[in-house]
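Continued from yesterday's entry.
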Amino acid sequence: MTQVDLGPFLAVRRHLRIAHHIPGRIRLRAGPAIVKDLGAVDSKAIDRILRALDGIKDVRINPGAGSVVVEYRPETIKPDWWETLILGREAAAVGLMHRLLENELASAVSAAEAAGISVPVSSGNS
């Protein structure tokens, strides 16, 4: 089975921290090493992808500050998923991401492909 390559997720994850989180709203901060890269990201494409997820209410990206605020429905997107994906052990984050890609994130992957955004895939188990 073909799977999304999680290498980019793992690389970015190392630079993120949760600045503030209450169920329904999370602010992520990017370390200075990737703030420059955040400025080059198409924020409209990210917004379209995140909004394709059931449970996302609003997304605000501030490349200058290196932050992203996501408002979400905690009954749909579990607050502890953020903790696992950003702060959890790598094996736990990868396991959760694979599960989400097969279920909850499938619509976001489809939206990315429809928007012409390349979704890296790998043919092996990652």
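--- second protein ---
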Amino acid sequence: MPSLGNSDEHLVKLLQLTIRISVRILAILMTILILLGVVDVGFVLFKKALTSSPRFVLSISDILATFGAFMAVLIAIEIFVNIIMYLREDVIHVKIVVATALMAIARKVIILDFSETSADFVWAIASVILATSTAYWLLSKAEDTPRERPPGSGPASQPNPPPAVEFNATVSAREGNPSKDG
């Protein structure tokens, strides 16, 4: 049976290589998408500015649509950061993913037309914002709290531990009780 374990190890290495190549392809595609998004934002902004009346004066709806396009590009950049972090550390950083979700819901709120939106939808978005913000806050709080070190990771396991400070009990006892000295 040991040969079975060896073939499984080769299969796992092959699958990991396939995933890493796929993630690199996603990074390249996301870069192309970001560049196309920037070009699109510029084109839409220029087109709206030329076709508006008076010229180069945007209406509030045009500005909100432009903000939505900007936010879409920023969300794509955040997703790109997630991909790069995964490539570097082979770990999905939940805090960055939650921050991306917060940005996406913020985009939705920015471009939301409240005259055409039901109250239930607004309450649902508010719930999503509250839940996502709470998750982000908890993740931030978890990063800020010091964690217990596992056994063997303390100062004794360091290659050159700091010199120990010796405590002389007899000197302390004499200093604390002068009647024995005199």
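Residues 75 and 100 are 6 Å apart (CA to CA). Residues 15-145 form one domain. Will compare against the first tomorrow.
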